[in-house]
Design brief:
Layout lengths: L1 H23 L7 H18 L3 E5 L7 E5 L6 H8 L3 E6 L8 H7 L3 E3 L6 H14 L3 E4 L20 H6 L3 E9 L17 H10 L4 E6 L10 H17 L2
Parallel strand pairs: 1-7, 2-5, 2-6, 3-4, 3-5
Antiparallel strand pairs: 6-7
Length: 244
């Protein structure tokens, strides 16, 4: 029975992704509010098509903001966009190779970083700072890779320099995937040798899976040390992850 449910979810998700690609072609004709509303609708729809319930708490900060979140799954961007559709993500360039999703992520205005090139981080920081100075919201995963969930990996401070240099507040976001029996579900874990297709099938086959998105209060960055700021943000997110 579970394979049948999984296949049905994958069919729904594939149709939803194709619909999203069609909607994306109309973006040039939409105003900013219209684009954000469609990003919100599509992102929440993808999460639900994969069989997850979606819980959102807190309010995204308007205006120039750097959003930082723990990183667990390839679904993280969709989960956050369901709550903050105006956020422009920084993502590793590898996702451009993902079937269908890579095209969508690129056309949503994502900034890509090639982690193998040390100097590429400096280029991305400058691009982030320019976006923040224009009053935009930029989102990053400072762990740099996906973790298993309960305990965030160390936060890299490099990309936080864009917020420190521009005096832009940082809004922490806490992501937690759960199911009917577990506070942290391992059905979404996307680490090690797990491939994208394996992860997609595992999520589609799961029972009672859900994702909680918590938007915390913004943190100021005036005169902040980026390394201490990174540690502080990680502590804030870690505390909320284990809270009942």
């Amino acid at each position: 029975m579970r394979p049948v449910v999984a296949l049905w979810r994958l069919l729904r998700a594939t149709v939803h992704v194709l619909h999203g690609m069609l909607v994306m072609t109309r973006f040039p004709a939409l105003d900013e509010a219209g684009r954000h509303e469609r990003i919100r609708w599509w992102s929440a729809g993808l999460v639900r098509a994969m069989g997850l319930t979606l819980q959102i708490s807190g309010t995204p900060r308007p205006g120039a903001t750097l959003v930082v979140s723990n990183h667990i799954s390839w679904l993280d961007i969709a989960a956050i966009h369901a709550a903050a559709p105006h956020a422009r993500f920084v993502s590793k360039a590898d996702v451009l190779q993902w079937p269908l999703l890579g095209w969508l992520i690129r056309n949503a205005g994502t900034l890509f970083i090639e982690r193998e090139r040390k100097r590429d981080a400096l280029r991305v920081v400058h691009a982030m700072a320019e976006s923040l100075q224009r009053g935009e919201t930029v989102a990053v995963f400072p762990e740099g890779t996906t973790g298993e969930g309960p305990e965030p990996l160390p936060f890299h401070a490099n990309l936080l320099q864009a917020a420190v240099a521009t005096g832009t507040p940082v809004q922490p976001v806490v992501l937690r995937f759960f199911d009917e029996k577990r506070h942290f579900s391992d059905d979404v874990v996307f680490v090690g040798e797990t491939t994208l297709l394996q992860s997609i099938w595992c999520i589609a086959s799961a029972r009672g899976l859900g994702v909680q998105v918590q938007l915390l209060s913004p943190v100021g960055t005036q005169h902040a040390d980026r390394r201490r700021l990174a540690e502080h943000l990680r502590e804030l997110i870690a505390e909320r992850l284990v809270a009942p």
